[in-house]
Amino acid sequence: MMRIALLGATGPSGQQVLDQALKTGHQVTVLVRDPGRLPQVGDSRVTVITGDATNTEDLKHALSGNDAVISALGAGKNFKSDIATRATRAFIPAADATGVRRVVWLSALGSGDTAQQTPALVNLGVKLLMSKLFADKAVADDLLRSSDVDWTLVYPMILTDGPRTGSYKTVDLPSSGKTGSRISRADVADFMLRAVTAEEWSHRNIALTR
């Protein structure tokens, strides 16, 4: 059992992480702007901190006393969002201040150098519709990699609402050839919880694929 701080708990991927973490027996602290959007509010295993994941002081409050961090932050439908860099810039000093070292951070296959692993049609869609969003993710990933935290970056491509299967593949990046395919948020959550408790995933860029 670990004490895990979770960012992005009200989003679809964060909800999968939270549900699975509780079933596994972990204690979870969530940092959310609106506790009313959290179905698990009132659960004794969940500590709810009201705040902003792009604010260092709020992050310090959420991280304090925890063993590790999982970030499932997303931009929703805002394809011009810069939440990834703002959250990462706020997170690193918060981690330094609280002494929390282990972090598993959700990114997206197709950002930065990982575009080499995705099909040409996907890259075209990113360039046409989400270039700013994916550029922001690439900067955030580089910030995390250059920090002192014990990071694992997780790169799914197309997320679905399918079931948890446990039958996905993990691919270290960079990799030869194309990597991406659809994968359920439930399987992504499964991997992130596995990774946060296992040293073998430390300082690795991991693509997830079926």
What can you tell me about this protein's structure?
The chain has helices at 12-24, 56-63, 83-98, 120-129, 131-145, 185-196; strands at 3-7, 27-32, 46-50, 68-71, 102-106, 150-155, 158-160, 169-172, 182-184, 204-209. The protein contains six helices and ten strands; from the N terminus they run βαββαβαβααββββαβ. Helices cover 35% and strands 22% of the residues. The strands form two sheets. The chain has an eight-stranded mixed β-sheet, with helices on both faces. Strands 7-9 form a two-stranded parallel sheet. Helix 2 packs across helix 3 and helix 3 (83-98) runs parallel beside helix 5 (131-145). It has 210 residues and is α/β, with parallel strands linked by helices. The mean pLDDT is 91. It has a single domain (3-209), classed as NAD(P)-binding Rossmann-like Domain (Rossmann fold, 3-Layer(aba) Sandwich), CATH 3.40.50.720.
Question: Any descriptors?
Answer:
6 helices; 10 strands; 210 residues; single chain; Rossmann fold
